[in-house]
Write a structure and sequence with these properties.
Blueprint: E1 11-12, E2 22-23, E3 31-32, E4 35-36, H1 37-41, E5 43-46, H2 47-52, H3 73-91, E6 95-99, H4 100-103, H5 110-131, E7 134-139, H6 158-177, E8 182-185, E9 191-192, H7 200-221, E10 226-229, E11 239-240, H8 245-254, E12 261-266, H9 267-272, H10 277-286, E13 290-294, H11 313-325, E14 334-336, H12 347-373, H13 376-384, H14 391-398, H15 403-410, H16 423-434
Parallel strand pairs: 1-2, 5-6, 5-14, 6-7, 7-8, 8-10, 10-12, 12-13, 13-14
Antiparallel strand pairs: 3-4, 9-11
Length: 437
């Protein structure tokens, strides 16, 4: 059955096109800095926002028009599989991502739940074989069911912890079966509301124990995907343990997990943490921890995770500049963890949202490539930090300087002259580049 009859294969038509169902900037075969756009961006569709989200918000019921909306249970799960691969084929996206509970419903027991999952995984595998589409990453939903009210890997109840471990075990098996490139740990409720009833040390220790168990089991079954942790500062808990890139890296360093994990960074999570997306990418990259990206944006007037499709050219340009600077995202990709707005409820809106995001990232990639090729920011940094390439500055960075030698230099009372950072000029230059590509 076809679920998107009114939409054909989305093609690249260029900037002059007025066809809303066509790419203006994303040309998958266009070569940018030695790689095609498709290779740079590795786009993925998020199963949960695209096929399970039906338009509800805290103040309104489902309103999305979907060809599978009249189904339920396993019939609904099977229909979504068909819709997923039709959508991927027509959009021309190579990857998709899912939580276990996105693709198959829970049963009354764990055994029944796993049986449901097996049926759908078999269907996914068949469709992947015939379509050539791949799984960028899978993960376990350990936050929706009421059993996880106090977390999963940080649960206060050992029975809940054991259930979570069983769910992770199954998730790793599913990932291996579908040859997933990555496996993500997203701590949906791994945090706390108040320290008054929280043993933080125990919870963090237990979370690390779960991660070590996962590493050991993946090795046991021969699942060689890249493990990723996705930072998020708040919502639903007041304070998540994986608050941001720096916090998560510190956790991994403390528990000896840095050899096994990298970070899956999300733009809207970055802004909720009070950072920019490019900041989080830079922090991960300079620590060798950049793994993959979840592409979306938040509404700066709202204080929660709105998961809008990315359309901010300035943000995507700086995002892709950081990715290029880091040498790419390896086995990761750009997953659209984004949903259409509640008012965009017709089936073709799913395509329009993804086209907007893909074109915006492609535009950002082209602008970032120009910034890189012309060494626009490199030359600014070279000039700004030139004092560390000679004299006392060179002594500092080479490790030759001591407190005594630096004091002796300072006692010469040479005039100190700072120079302007010229932020406004730099931003104008970026604007000129962005709107010229």
């Amino acid at each position: 059955m076809a679920y998107f009859d009114g939409v054909g294969k989305i093609q690249f038509e260029g900037k002059g096109s007025d066809n809303p169902l066509a790419f203006k900037h994303y040309n998958p075969k266009e070569v940018v800095l030695g790689k095609t756009m498709e290779e740079h961006l590795r786009f993925a569709v998020a199963y949960w926002h695209t096929f399970t989200y039906e338009g509800a918000d805290p103040f309104g019921a489902n309103n999305a028009i979907r060809g599978w909306g009249n189904l339920s249970g396993m019939d609904l799960a099977k229909a979504r599989v068909e819709a997923n691969f039709e959508f991927l084929e027509k959009l021309g996206v190579p990857f998709y991502c899912f939580h276990d509970r996105d693709i198959a419903p829970e049963g009354s027991t764990l055994q029944e739940t796993n049986k449901n999952l097996d049926v759908i995984v078999d269907l996914l595998k068949q469709n992947m074989k015939t379509s050539g589409k791949k799984l960028l990453w899978n993960t376990a939903n350990m936050f929706t069911n009421p059993r996880f009210v106090f977390g999963a890997g940080t649960a206060v109840n050992a029975d809940v912890y054991a259930y979570a471990a069983a769910q992770v075990k199954k998730g790793l098996e599913v990932g291996k079966e579908l040859d997933s490139e990555n496996y993500v740990f997203w701590g949906g409720r791994e945090g706390y509301e108040t320290l008054l009833n929280t043993d933080m040390a125990l919870e963090l220790d237990n979370l690390a124990r779960l991660f070590h168990m996962a590493v050991a089991y993946a090795k046991e079954i021969g699942f060689d995907a890249q493990f990723l942790i996705e930072p998020k500062p708040k919502e639903p808990t007041k304070h998540q343990y994986d608050f941001d890139a720096a916090t998560t890296i510190s956790f991994l360093q403390k528990y000896g997990l840095t050899d096994h994990f990298k970070l899956n960074l999300e733009a809207n999570h970055a802004t909720l943490a009070g950072h920019t997306f490019e900041h989080e990418i830079r922090v991960a990259a300079i620590n060798g921890m950049l793994g993959s990206l979840d592409a979306n944006q938040g509404d700066m007037l709202l204080g929660w995770d709105t998961d809008e499709f990315p359309t901010d050219l300035y943000s995507t340009t700086l995002t892709m500049y950081e990715v290029l600077r880091a040498g790419g995202i390896g086995r990761g990709g750009v997953n659209f963890d984004a949903k259409v707005r509640r008012g965009s409820f017709e089936p073709d809106d799913l395509f329009l949202g993804h086209i907007a995001g893909m074109d915006t990232f492609a535009w950002g990639l082209k602008a970032a490539a120009k910034i890189t090729e012309e060494r626009v920011l490199d030359s600014i940094l070279d000039e700004r930090y030139r004092s560390f390439r000679e004299g006392i500055g060179l002594d500092i960075v080479s490790g030759k300087a001591t407190l005594a030698s630096l004091e002796q230099y300072a006692l010469q009372n040479n005039p100190i002259k700072n120079e302007s950072g010229r932020q406004e000029r730099i931003k104008l230059v970026l604007n000129e580049i962005i709107y010229s590509v």
